[in-house]
Amino acid sequence: MRRRRLPVHMYTAVAGVLIAVLLAGCGASAGAGRRAGGPVNLDDVAGAAGIRGVGLEHPVDKPDIRLTDTGGRPYDFRQATAGRLTLLFFGYSHCPDICPTTMADIAAALGALPGADRSKVSVVFVTSDPDRDTGAVLHTWLAQFDPSFVGLTGSFDVIAGYAGQLGIELEPPRRQADGSVTVTHGTQVTAFSPDGTAHVVYLAGTKVADYAHDIPLLIAGQT
Fold this sequence. Notes:
- With 223 residues, the protein is of the alpha+beta class.
- It contains 8 helices and 10 strands.
- The strands form 2 sheets. An 8-stranded mixed sheet has the order 1-10-9-4-5-6-2-3, with helices on both faces. The protein has a two-stranded antiparallel ribbon with strand order 7-8.
- The chain starts with 7 loop residues before the first helix and ends with a helix.
């Protein structure tokens, strides 16, 4: 069971998009005329072919995350990812749905890109279940998707503090009466542009095609 909560500024950004859609009238236009009588292709609509993630009203600075990688080495998030597009996600390897599908979708999107773009992207996965996600467990789990994905672990309280800086909810893992473990965590992927700030996030269920569409634009600094 996981709940997703967005910070207030993210709700504002999404609400702004919805209001703009509700207020926009439907009528003929020069672009629509090219496809009269058929579905509108978004690539023909001004502005619609831009970033497909959820834009943040205010950019978020890359947090000063200092944790331990899967090899047991200290990892300085800012230093290690400087100048790179960085996709940051908080989750856990025992997750039955959102975490593996998110990692698989990002891996598939990166695999569809030219090598020159792929080499400019870092994917960092921070565990929300550090007691079970040892370095070895994280390494093996992430390698299923892409061996370049970075896994980080540490104490839960420290990890939750970093997540809180981004408005991402984490709750301590809770063991249930039947022996199962419930881990509640936010599910958004935060995309830090090469300039070190996040202008966009991706929610659970984002399509592979949308990641593949946006990544080259984010690398180029488009937000």
